[in-house]
Recover the amino acids of this structure.
């Protein structure tokens, strides 16, 4: 933004020159993050070039591998409302959130996606934190799901 200001460009003029919507620049300033393509466009708009240079005296960080959609928990789907901003949330966190919520469809999806044993392991962590009535409801629903799975397997 300093280079833009030095050229007499306000935020909306900078966005226009970069071929971006003003909201994109505003959101980037507010959040403190921006996608690489937008950053490149802004840099070019004010005559700057983005470059990467090695930092002396530091080791490279390990590569963080994102999960492919096939590896993501089915509970990460936005329709469940458990992973609004992080579709790569760990399965154990999503399952515990589903258990705390107690909705039958969420519980069924957790069991189908991760297995009954995994869900019951997470349940042992969540159950002490819930009120008695909520705990009884979730246990009843999990028992019904287990019964349904057993009936389907027979």
């Amino acid at each position: 933004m300093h280079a833009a200001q030095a050229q007499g460009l306000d935020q909306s003029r900078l966005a226009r020159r970069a071929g971006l919507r003003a909201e994109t620049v505003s959101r980037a300033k507010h959040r403190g993050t921006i996608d690489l393509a937008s950053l490149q466009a802004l840099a070019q708009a004010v005559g700057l070039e983005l470059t990467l240079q090695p930092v002396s005296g530091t080791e490279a960080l390990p590569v963080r591998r994102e999960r492919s959609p096939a590896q993501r928990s089915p509970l990460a789907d936005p329709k469940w409302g458990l992973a609004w901003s992080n579709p790569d949330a760990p399965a154990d966190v999503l399952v515990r959130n589903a258990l705390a919520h107690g909705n039958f469809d969420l519980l069924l999806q957790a069991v189908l996606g991760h297995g009954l044993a995994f869900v019951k392991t997470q349940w042992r962590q969540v159950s002490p934190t819930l009120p008695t009535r909520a705990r009884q409801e979730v246990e009843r629903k999990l028992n019904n799901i287990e019964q349904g799975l057993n009936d389907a397997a027979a």
